[in-house]
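Subject: complex prediction, re-run

Hi both,

The earlier run crashed halfway through, so I resubmitted it with identical inputs.
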Amino acid sequence: MGRVLRPSAFSVVLSLVLGLAIAGSNVLPAAATGSYNRSAAHSYADTWSSNVSVLRNPAYNSAGNDNDCQNFVSQVLAAGGYQAHAGFSWDCNGAWWFDGGNYTQSDSWMNNGCFNTFASYHGGDFQYITSQPSTLSEGDFFFMDLDGAGAPTHSRSIVGMGWAVDSGNWAMLIDQHSNERWHQEWNYLLPGGTPLWSWHVIW
Amino acid sequence: MKRVAGGGIVALISIILIAGRMADAGGSRVQDLGPISNATEAVAIRDAFEGSVRVHGEAARTLSTDQFVTVFINDGRFPLTAKQAGLVSKSKPEASANAGYLTYMTAYFEQWQRGAQALTRIEAARARGAAPALADTAIFASARTDPWVKPTFEYKSINASPDASLATLEAVGDGQIYRVTMVKSNGRWYVAAENNTPLT
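This time it finished cleanly. Structure:
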């Protein structure tokens, strides 16, 4: 508990200043310069997910027991070293950040549809995958529409191949929040008719 | 429409009350239905429901709505949920008045088709180093590429009207609790409403 996370040093002032620049520029980001640590992302996802209890890292805000899925995916990305993007909190195209000093975050940090838009706007960081999520890698993620409104409403974090808890199969596994899942198959309880949005981190 | 089976005034009043309750409740009231006793009809209802799940699942891979008229139907007694109605008003506004479940499913997949077209434009923009259009980033999508797997259902209940023209079923499977209203038209069962709960 109380794990310290790297992006939490972000300041509101920096957010506003840089936000003006990014929100106004409306262009694709520069080529990726970082290096995503998939193992660290995987480790974080496994640490903060469970099949039997609700785990929430107190270093972050919680979106509650029913709506924490994207918050969890954002935390996993941050644990993998994906760096914050300054901007106005409501700017789904440009902003993705958590301010640990003030316990505030961008909409994209918590909202599935908003982060899906963010990812689509950062092609240098995320690659949209049209093949099934079983082809993703640890630290990647995907969205689905579970309420029939035509937009992403749920997200899962991919943690790589392993033995699935429920089925016992060797399969691509996920961790997720809301509902709480740990090491389940990527398509565990996934309706066969729902659209998916799958993302491979290339940052 | 319900068929008046007898000439008794009591039966007539009962039918009027049942029809009134259904219309008033928009299809969500099922207390006038009872557990189905006709085994053949029960099988037909289950087959029609599972057929609709198959058509839905296959459409998610092809984005084709061609088979929807064979499993879904519009029935004015069963209005859409707020989210379903919201999608129709956004995706297919010209059909939003009195839209039923067939219209909703068609609108949902037409939006999905437009999302696939948007994805193509996003990728083209990216290939030439340009920013994707905001409108495209908001709606892009792609067809499912994992094979559809026939789900196994655990049926909690199947209820039907006395004249076997209306049925409701509750079943668990395909990652959801399905709550489905079905109507019989020209001897065939169709899905007229769904209000499901994901278990994901």
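Residues 1-32 of chain A have pLDDT under 50 and may be disordered.

- K.
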